[in-house]
Design goal:
One of its GO terms (molecular function) is oxidoreductase activity, acting on the aldehyde or oxo group of donors, NAD or NADP as acceptor. By secondary structure, this protein is an alpha/beta fold. The chain is built from 14 helices and 22 strands. Strands 14-15-16-13-12-18-19 form a 7-stranded mixed beta sheet, sandwiched between helices. Strands 9-8-7-10-11-21 form a 6-stranded mixed beta sheet, with helices on both faces. Bound molecules: nicotinamide-adenine-dinucleotide (NAD).
Length: 471
């Protein structure tokens, strides 16, 4: 059994958690299911390891982060195979997550430091602003990009001088646990602890008095619960939550040129990404052409088990999400016209065809809510001011994009969106150097870039009075 990493030791735990293959719906292995004692030991180990880790130089911590990244690269073949197995996704996508995203973010934060700033200096005082580590960070991770999201929490938390306890998602623990096994010899004991377990283990971390901060990525619904249960200990929280990204196609866009990219950014990882295109607003003059182009691409895509070399898209990752997606398929059928996909295949596994819905409007659940699966609603608009208002009408504000041939004009429209990220003629362009902010009910406490280091640090001013000159 793949084990948890607690205080530098690999631990089997006392309970088991089934791991299901989304391509068959059958259990294929078990991992430990962390109980209260495991959470307690992990937090205690992180607390004990904290002072020595905090007191290392940023460069020394950076060396260890770089070694962690190198370990991932050296073992990429095994890690990607595990990720394909637990998510059902194609190998190319697993490689992108492990080698490009996880390794990229670990290396980016290696050695990054928040230097003190001189705020004011005059004859009477010198005031500096410092940023100091917080202590033990609890990281709670979702299932859709388990390795990347864990790495994007571990890297800035450790670079800032904190230690960490990671709780993996109940349905995708394997690859991250294996990372812990690989890192056990290169990370000082207790600096990184990795637990697998259910929601209860996450809740215990959030409530724990010795955890200084929670960094959470997951649904808005769980984010609300986490914020409430962090209140008694007044923990700092970073919440990266749901999204309902709009893409706006301006009248001067070239449909044939952009349709493949629109398709790719809508159905990436079978739509199971917080910031892919979830509402496609197309100008009246291009509406039929764009619907035809996207439907054509969706109809010819191969949805199959990730282990199949022909697979371009995998299944929905877990049963609960599959049932949610089936519910939204019903909503789509009632609210619009399905022009690709829609019919769920018979047989085992959580497979859903790439589905395109046209003649659908704002107000339909399939437009206003986040299905988090392979269903794309295409909505018609005729007035740019009106479509900007409709895009902004959502309580979510994670990402958004504007597409047009006149890049400057498209950029002006993009700047009017309220989402944390806006992209022009692209979507979901993740980059370790670029902050990925979440606005409105998509969360707060940014990840990515130098700004992504700050939520792991507490501010301190050092205000020194200067001696009064004698006489
Ligand atoms: P989820 O909220 O169901 O679960 C996420 C994690 O929280 C899991 O590890 C789970 O065990 C844990 N958890 C559940 N209840 C908890 C509680 N009461 N206390 C502590 N921990 C608890 O989310 P999910 O279904 O795994 O992920 C999908 C969602 O994540 C989508 O809404 C998606 O948009 C969002 N997401 C957001 C981002 C972002 O960066 N904003 C990135 C990826 C996914």
């Amino acid at each position: 059994m793949v084990r948890m990493l607690i205080g530098g030791e690999l631990v089997e735990g006392t309970r088991g958690l089934d791991v299901v293959d989304p391509c068959t719906g059958g259990i294929f292995t078990q991992v430990p299911d962390a109980d209260a004692a495991d959470v307690e030991r992990a937090v205690a180990a992180a607390k004990a390891a904290y002072p020595a880790w905090r007191d290392l130089t940023p460069a020394a911590r950076g060396e260890i982060l770089r070694a962690m990244a190198a370990k991932v690269t050296e073992n990429a073949e095994e890690l990607c195979a595990l990720l394909v197995q637990e998510t059902g996704r194609p190998m190319g996508l697993a490689q992108f997550e492990v080698l490009h995203l996880a390794v990229g973010y670990l290396n980016y934060y290696a050695g990054l430091e928040a230097l003190p700033e001189l705020i004011v200096e005059d004859d009477t005082r010198r005031v500096e602003l410092h940023r100091k580590a917080l202590g033990v960070v609890g990281a709670i991770v979702p299932w859709n990009a388990p390795v990347f999201i864990a790495a994007n929490k571990i890297a800035p938390a450790l670079a800032a001088g904190n230690t960490i306890v990671v709780k993996t998602a109940p349905t995708t623990p394997l690859t991250t646990l294996r990372l812990g096994e690989l890192w056990a010899d290169i990370v000082p004991a207790g600096v990184v602890n990795i637990l697998s377990g259910g929601n209860d283990a996450g809740a215990l971390l959030v409530a724990h008095e010795d955890v200084a901060k929670i960094t959470f990525t997951g649904s808005t619904e769980t984010g609300r619960k986490i914020m409430a249960s962090a209140a008694p200990t007044l923990k700092r929280v970073t919440l990266e939550l749901g999204g309902n990204d709009a893409a706006i196609i301006l009248p001067d866009a070239d449909v044939a040129a952009i349709a493949p990219a629109i398709f790719a950014f809508a159905f990436f990882n079978s739509g199971q990404v917080c910031a892919v295109i979830k509402r496609l607003y197309v100008h009246d003059s291009l509406y039929d052409a764009m619907c035809d182009a996207i439907a054509g691409l969706a109809s010819s895509a191969t949805v199959a088990p990730g282990s199949d070399a022909a697979a371009e898209f995998g299944p929905v990752q877990n049963k609960a999400q599959y049932e949610k997606v089936l519910h939204y398929l019903g909503e789509a059928r009632a609210a619009g016209q399905i022009v690709a996909g829609g019919d769920v295949p018979e047989g085992a596994g959580y497979f859903v065809p790439l589905t395109v819905v046209r003649d659908v409007s704002d107000g339909a659940a399939i437009v206003d809510e986040e299905p988090f699966g392979p269903i794309l609603p295409i909505i018609r608009y005729s007035d740019v001011d009106d479509v900007v208002a409709r895009a902004n009408a959502s309580p979510f504000a994670l990402g958004g994009s504007v597409w047009g041939s006149d890049t400057a004009a498209a950029t002006k429209v993009a700047a009017r969106l309220e989402s944390g990220s806006v992209w022009v003629n692209q979507h979901c362009a993740l980059d370790p150097q670029v902050p990925f902010p979440a606005n409105k009910q998509s969360g707060f406490g940014v990840e990515g870039g130098v700004e992504g280091l700050y939520p792991y640090l507490a501010l301190q001013t050092i205000n020194v009075a200067k001696p009064v000159a004698a006489g």
